[in-house]
Amino acid sequence: MATKWTAADIPALAGKTALITGANSGIGYQAALELVRHGAHVYLACRNAEKGHAALSRLHVEAPGASAEVVLLDVSSIADVKRFAAEFLAAHPTLDLLINNAGVMAFPTRQVTPEGFERQFATNHLGHFALTGLLLPALRATPAPRVVTVASLAHRNGKIDFDDLQMEKSYKPWDAYGQTKLANILFARELARRSAGTGLLSLAVHPGVSQTSIVDNGPGANDLKTKLIFTFGKFLTQTDAAGALPTLYAATSPNAHSGEYIGPDGLGELKGSPVVVKPRANALDEAVGKRLWDVSEQLTGVVYP
Ligand SMILES: NC(=O)c1ccc[n+]([C@@H]2O[C@H](COP(=O)([O-])OP(=O)(O)OC[C@H]3O[C@@H](n4cnc5c(N)ncnc54)[C@H](OP(=O)(O)O)[C@@H]3O)[C@@H](O)[C@H]2O)c1
Question: What is the DSSP string of 76-120?
């Protein structure tokens, strides 16, 4: 990556299919936009039909002739992931690219899904773990499949608390988010290890700090931490389109390698052009990655082939 990588470097993607979770806004939408611009067919996996179709309409305006469709999926529900994957596989035997992007952040109070999981852990990690495992047959049926999982700088303060994964004993909004974003990198790296020699690439990425809906949907504008970051926002943060570049690099660059972690090259990795970056040591612990994998199989009932 001698020169700065931009969306103009995305290769032609005609004939490729991509599924993006949480594609109706922010980084997921911007990633979808560039993929359709380069010829891919994109499945916009959204939990809200109205928002999904509004995003699809916007896509057709911003990329006339875009090949895309909305598919409904609530990734926080393992039952819905299983329903979705069964229907998707029945209709589509192949999938070239899966982007595990949907996310929620730092709810002020602990929220629990109907299945009993802490909502950030269910959405950001468990649902994507299950989705990836169930879609593997379609991915492996293509010549060069990729799985991209969107993590965060917030992994740095994360810890996988195997004694209290659902944060029942003690809930702290940013600890809960950090745990899930650390889980994203551990998962991407473990998938890369398990897929070595199969042709499937698995990468983790992070968008620095990008202006999206994630604050309003999570901690809210009054949260001190987000207030500090976003008050100085115009200098420290970047657009959602720029935030999507690490995802797009990992998803399409011929120079991307399995197991890599891609983020912005600017000061503190807050913004900039996509490059290979180093996660903290907590994300490189293979033993924790393997244990999280086993626990995730038990919790979701999805055992990888
Ligand atoms: N923005 C940043 O600075 C930043 C920094 C680090 C990491 N990230 C990561 O980037 C990813 C995308 O976030 P964003 O910043 O683009 O925020 P965003 O604009 O709020 O987008 C999040 C997307 O996820 C969807 N989503 C949430 N829960 C879902 C569920 N249960 N099922 C299906 N979709 C669901 C949302 O759908 P609704 O519209 O229906 O809510 C939305 O489309 C997340 O994984 C986040 O952790 C963002």
Answer: T-HHHHHHHHHHHHHH-S--SEEEE-------SS--B-TTS-BHH
Alpha carbon of 214 to ligand 1 centroid (Å): 6
Q: Which uninterrupted H or E stretch holds 33?
A: helix 26-37
Active site residues: 177
Q: Please give the distance of CA 120 from its chain centroid, rounded to a whole number.
A: 13
- The DSSP line for 48-74 is -HHHHHHHHHHHHHHSTT-EEEEEE--
Q: Cα(6) to centroid of ligand 1, in Å?
A: 22
3-state secondary structure of 236: helix
Work out the mean pLDDT of the chain and round it to a whole number.
Answer: 95
Among 8-22, 167-181, 218-232, the least confident range: 218-232
User: Residue 21 phi/psi, 5° resolution?
Assistant: -80, 145
Helix boundaries (H) for 113-272: 119-120, 127-140, 173-194, 214-217, 224-231, 233-236, 240-243, 245-252
Distance CA 200, CA 183 (A): 20
Q: How far is the CA of 113 from the centre of ligand 1 (A)?
A: 17
The predicted pLDDT at position 77 comes to 98
- Interatomic CA distance for residues 84 and 217, integer angstroms: 24
Pocket test for ligand 1, best of 126, 185, 217, 229 (most atoms within 8 A of CB): 217
Q: Mean per-residue pLDDT for 106-130? A: 97
Do the beta carbons of residue 264 and residue 271 sit within 8 Å? yes
How far is residue 281's CA from residue 196's CA, in Å, rounded to a whole number? 22
Q: Which two tokens stand for residue 125?
A: 């990690």
As given in the structure block, the two tokens for residue 255 are 């120079």
